[in-house]
Every structure is written in C-alpha cells, then in structure tokens.
Amino acid sequence: MRPDGTPGAALVRRARHGAALWRAAPGAVVLASGAHGEAEAIGAICRAEGVPEDRLLLECAARNTAQNIALSAPILAARGIAQVTLVTDYYHLPRARLLAARAGLRAAGAAPRHGIGRPHRHAWLVLREAAALVAALSARHRP
C-alpha cells in the first residue's frame, strides 16, 4: 500500500490476476491476505472484477509473506482447503511456495504478466527476494 492508503501497482496487478483465475474456476474462493488495508484493497479490486462477496475471504493481520501463509492456513483448513494457487510476482513464487508447503498446503503458483519496468528496480526486487529465500531456507518454521 502506498503512504496515501491506495494500492500500489503490484497489489493491483496481483489482485486482478487472482480475479481472472477465479473467473476461470468460479467454484473457488479468493483469500486476500495483508495488514494495513492490503486485504481490503485486494477484496475491493476482486469485487470490481466480478468476484462475488461470498467467494472472498479476508485475512487482515499479516505483515509479511510468512504471516500471509501462517495466518491464512487455518482459514483455509476450516473450509477443508489444502490445495491452493498462490498469486504473486514470479520472483516471489519460490519462497511463497516453500512457506506454503511448510504450512501443510499444496501450492501451485500463478504470476501475472509483469513488465520489467526500471531495470535497477527490477534487479533490486529479484536480489531482495533471493536473499529472503535463502533466509527462509535456513530458518526454522516460524512466521
């Protein structure tokens, strides 16, 4: 989320992709996760893209990827859901899938089309995510 409370481009891109996946499988649910208005913004974008309210679940406390997974897993388990499709940018999928597996979820990944944008920004995101993946691989199972 931007400082003014509006969703950034990545959140919008990911939410729209999640809504498109839902349209291809309307029996599914969309679980939006994130604190500081992220889950609510994802939900609003998904509703605007045609996802009905009864197919949306919100988890509004997670402040990072590990918490996104850890706090979403019980919500999914309560509905008998153990197989999920994680929607995030391609460079983030390996770590998200690792964390989902540790939480007992079978997770596929789906990344929206992503324009490279400014090369230095893209390089920073990829390098940051590589470091986070190394940390996750070496960490114990804690969010």
TrEMBL record:
Residues 11-123 form the DUF218 domain. InterPro entries: Cell_Envelope_Assoc, DUF218, Rossmann-like_a/b/a_fold. Signal peptide: none annotated. One of its GO terms (biological process) is peptidoglycan metabolic process. CDD domains: YdcF-like (cd06259). One of its GO terms (cellular component) is plasma membrane. This is DUF218 domain-containing protein. It comes from Rhodovulum steppense.
